[in-house]
């Protein structure tokens, strides 16, 4: 065995010892990082998932807001619908806008060839028992789509982009509400 092989083995052992020492130091310190959806309780031994299932999402008025609301209810409850006895109410105000993202010049017309749907939700989370506001926030997302020359195909592509943006916004809102509940617990 050459001197070079001994040095690389020694460096490997030193790195392993240093890694084990770091793990020991980190586990000994008061680390407060834990999974967001873990079993640690929010109130009376409830985990985050159980607390999210107690949220009732109030009715909305527009088609885009309804898409966000329906997907959010599914995400909060795990597919079981609105709670019979909610502990929290979530009020949503969803807005949607569409802009042309690119244009292609055909002869003398500048026709849009792509668009972007931007969907924004303002939310307020309140306790049912006290009426106290637990959290407020604003989240947004966007989805792009192609604008073909056919009018119906363009309308369908825009609607599909709105639906994609609504699903993504619902997922973002679920995460935001879960984080708000965790902050309240601490």
Would you give an account of this structure?
With 186 residues, the chain is of the alpha+beta class. The chain has helices at residues 3-28, 48-52, 63-77, 151-185, and strands at 55-57, 88-106, 109-127, 133-146. The chain has a 4-stranded mixed sheet with strand order 1-2-3-4.
Head-to-tail CA distance between termini? 57 Å
Specify the biggest β-sheet: 4 strands, mixed
Unreliable spans: 41-45
The secondary structure category is alpha+beta
Number of helices, counting only DSSP H or I runs of 4 residues or more: 4
**Percent range for β-strand residues:** 25-35%
How helix-rich are the residues, as a percent range? Answer: 40-55%
Shape call: flat
Radius of gyration: 25 Å
Strand order of the largest sheet: 1-2-3-4
Mean pLDDT: 80
Number of strands: 4
* String of helices and strands: HHEHEEEH
Descriptive terms for the model:
44% helix, four-stranded mixed β-sheet, 4 strands, alpha+beta, 186 residues
Outline the fold blueprint.
Elements: H1 3-28, H2 48-52, E1 55-57, H3 63-77, E2 88-106, E3 109-127, E4 133-146, H4 151-185
Parallel strand pairs: 1-2
Antiparallel strand pairs: 2-3, 3-4
Helix pairs in contact: 3-4
Give a concise summary.
This protein has 186 residues and is α+β, with helices and mostly antiparallel strands.
